[in-house]
Design a protein that fits this description.
Helix content: 25-40%
Radius of gyration: 28 Å
Bound molecules: flavin mononucleotide
Distance between the termini: 59 Å
Number of helices: 12
Strand order of the largest sheet: 3-2-6-9-10-5-4
Order of helices and strands: HHEEEEEHEHHEEEEEEHHHEHHEEHH
Oligomer: single chain
Length: 339
């Protein structure tokens, strides 16, 4: 039996409702982020970051948002007949922070690409959706004013939106299972699948197996693949640099492997540098080596595209974001950048 706590028991008495705690509680409600713009009576552009935006009605199309009475932009929105809503894209958090600062409209719009629409609204670029609205109602909302607008213009693209939750910017990732599990799946597999270690290892196994099977077709070993890719990204590297890069992946390599690649005419060892020390010899790709490296590179780009297509843009961005955070924490010692 489910016990439902009556609502009045969950509510704290009015006098005990601490504004900071209230604000924190509201943070559990994930929202998108908008910048809402208008033109002040003196012709200056005005804009404010707002996540109180929401839909109201489909027919007629209406939206709402609320603005703090004490906000500097409030008088401009009260007197304006029109305003434009910009639903921000996943990479526009800096723009959001800029329009959330109590600075003048001129400062907010300085150095930005923007234009005026036919109703006088400043329009920003790079967002996922823009809506041009006409104020139809203004309501008292405590220390805020609630603006209700009729949507009279709309533009939209498929760029993933920026999300705001718990005081942080985020990217929304879908919880939908893209591939439903088989009906007869052994439940023990399900628990194994949910372990983080299993998931990381399994993803890495899949990726490496795909990449190295292509290398094998071109008669290139895993270690040689790494050497060729390291040289493909740069014109030339020292022998020592290549050895350090390859060792970082957990595989070992010595000068013999480089000599072997030279014997197969995939790399050229620059012994004209007059360097007696083998570690400091410069290694270059030959034309044949560059051709093989280009094919390997094209294959990994194809694989990446296929994964992105399967996951979708937003989930790919979310995955990249999490993996780069993971690498910053657990793999901070990359000796040389590959690129
Ligand atoms: C993600 C985010 C959402 C916000 N949402 C609102 C909102 O819905 N209403 C509001 O009045 N202020 C909101 N703010 C705060 C305003 O953006 C901020 O007070 C800003 O200074 C207002 O601009 P102004 O001072 O030029 O009027 C939000 C801030 C952030 C960072």
């Amino acid at each position: 039996m489910t016990i439902v706590t009556p609502l009045h028991e969950l509510c704290e008495p009015r006098s005990a409702l601490d504004p900071a705690r209230f604000r924190q509680a509201l943070g559990a409600f994930a929202t998108g982020v908008t910048i809402i713009t208008t033109q002040a009576e003196d012709g200056m552009p005005v804009g404010v970051t707002a996540n109180s935006f929401n839909s109201v009605s489909l027919e007629p199309p209406m939206v709402l948002w609320s603005l703090a009475r004490k906000s500097g932009s409030c008088p401009a929105f009260i007197s304006a007949e029109h305003w434009a809503v910009h639903i921000l894209a996943w990479d526009q958090h800096e723009l959001s922070s800029r329009f959330a600062r109590p600075i003048s409209g001129a400062e907010k719009f300085a150095d930005l690409a923007w234009e005026l629409d036919s109703d006088g609204n400043p329009l920003l670029s790079g967002c996922t959706t823009r809506m041009q609205c006409r104020t139809v109602h203004m309501y008292d909302g405590g220390d805020h004013i609630i603006f209700v607008g009729e949507v009279i213009g709309l533009e939209k693209n498929d760029v993933p939106p920026l999300v705001f939750q718990g005081g942080n910017y985020a990217i929304a990732t879908s919880t939908r299972q893209a591939v439903p599990p088989p009906v007869d799946e052994d439940p023990r597999n399900v628990s194994a699948n949910s372990s983080l270690g299993y998931l990381l290892a399994s993803a890495s196994l899949y990726y490496n197996a795909r990449i190295y099977s292509q290398a094998k077709l071109l008669n290139v070993t895993e270690v040689e693949h790494l050497v060729l890719m390291a040289l493909y990204e740069r014109e030339a590297r020292t022998c020592d640099e290549i050895i350090t890069l390859v060792n970082y992946t957990g595989r070992s390599i010595g000068i013999e492997s480089i000599n072997d690649l030279e014997a197969r005419e995939l790399v050229r060892i620059d012994d004209e540098s007059g360097c007696a020390d083998s570690e400091n010899l410069m290694i270059h790709l030959t034309d044949t080596g560059r051709e093989v490296a280009a094919r390997l590179n094209a294959e990994s780009e194809r694989l990446e595209m296929a994964i992105m297509e399967q996951l979708g843009t937003a989930d790919t961005l979310a995955l990249c974001n999490l993996l780069s955070r993971f690498n910053r924490i657990y793999r901070p010692m990359i000796p040389y950048r590959w690129f």
